[in-house]
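User: I'm new to structure prediction. If I give you an amino acid sequence, what do you actually give back? Let's try with this one:
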Amino acid sequence: MQPRNYLFNIQCNRLYMGKLFIGREKEQEQLKDYIGSNQSEFIAVYGRRRVGKTCLIQQVIGNNYAFYVAGMNQVTKEIQLVNFMQGIRKHRPDEPLPHVKTWLDAFLALESYLESLPEGKKIVFIDEMPWMDTPRSNFISGLEHFWNSWASWRDDIKLIVCGSATSWIINNLIKNRGGLHNRVTHKIPLKPFTLKECREFFIAKGFRLSNKQIAECYMVLGGVPFYLEKLNKGEGVAQNIDRLLFDEDGELHDEFQSLYNSLYKNATNHIKIVTALATKGHGLTRQELIEKTKLSANGKFSLMLEELKSCGFIRSYEPYLSVNTRSRETGTIDHQSPVTLYQLVDPFTLFHFQVMRKADTHDPNYWSNNQNSHVYSTWSGLSFEMLCLNHVEQIKMSLGISGITANAFSWLGKGKDRSAQIDLLIDRADKTINICEMKFYNKPYAMTAKDEDDIERKVSSFIEATHTDKNIIVTMITAKGLERNEHSEGVQKELTLDQLFC
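Assistant: Good question. You get back a string of structure tokens that encode the predicted 3D arrangement of the chain. For your 502 residues, that looks like this:
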């Protein structure tokens, strides 16, 4: 019997012990299938810090690994090599091991150890792999030799790697242009929990939260399991947020900086980008970002955008444009080129900029004291829109169009109609467009004459600008439903927050 790696088990089981492992059914089945195949596999599991990558892998493989090691943060190559060899020593405590000076030697020692094991599948799990790639260490070369010259020629090696530095995983493994090009056989991107998974988590932990309260937790912390684990069921939502974020000793008080520094070697410029995006809800073009951040317009800037996208902090999208738009002045056809916008969509980052950076840092009860303030209403309105954007698939399912090809867009009018902004429209293959309005209120939303006029202006401007002949369905998404009155007759479809939990 192989010895247990107790540190590994304790770290993971703290979050997900037995039946408390929530969600991830798709990813668990994927990982089981890959491990059960009849060929060697190189599996990359990646996602932002604290999202539960290690715990997912441990849930599937348990103690059934032949080798496990976790990279160490900010240590030298020599210490990384000692740590790596200790992973072998745990299984060979009485046998002398070679003193290795290079990663090539370390991986050759791993090969020798694995070859000595009985026949059968051999799971090799390397956690926090990006930390092992210290400057000028030639780590990638050693890994490349291990896989290309030995592991890939066999049918029993299951190499599972993960790390919080998602950009490193993507750039050095998945998109590698050298010896590891196309060598990753499977990739599993792990995203934060959905609202449904958040609710399952809270139920399993003994919380008694309404869907609206769960949504508020999501709108502050995102669906990051590690953050949700910090909530205390004996406290209210606002009280929990105060304790974790606004108390100077709170466990997540300095998490923003730690989060970005853990993901990127030089996070200063990444933070400049999200800071700029936090000023524009609908997003900025690449050129607008360059002007606001004063960063150089080069390949490094493009790479930073891709790195932020890969971690789920931002998204890129093309606003809805008619392929053939007719000029009002000349009547001629104007063939528009798509313009890519970059938009901040991470709830935790959004809360940092919308609330924490503007807050009175000397008030440890700031969030509790501002539940009825303009600060709360402004943040909640924008954050609820982000929540809806992050749950477009659930919206489509609730609309009964999950089987129909449909794409989500935003739209912004030009010229005098620039204020006619539509944050979410769903363009469907059945020649229908859902124009969505999103409102987050503590009670059923009662539309006013101004709301009615705003929606009519948006729809009219959209039809005039795009010349669409598709059926338009005005769709209202609210937290507590829509109170029907004389101003709501133009709303043809209603969805509530509850329906986003599907």
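You can read the tokens as a compact description of the fold. Here is one thing that stands out. The radius of gyration is 25 Å.
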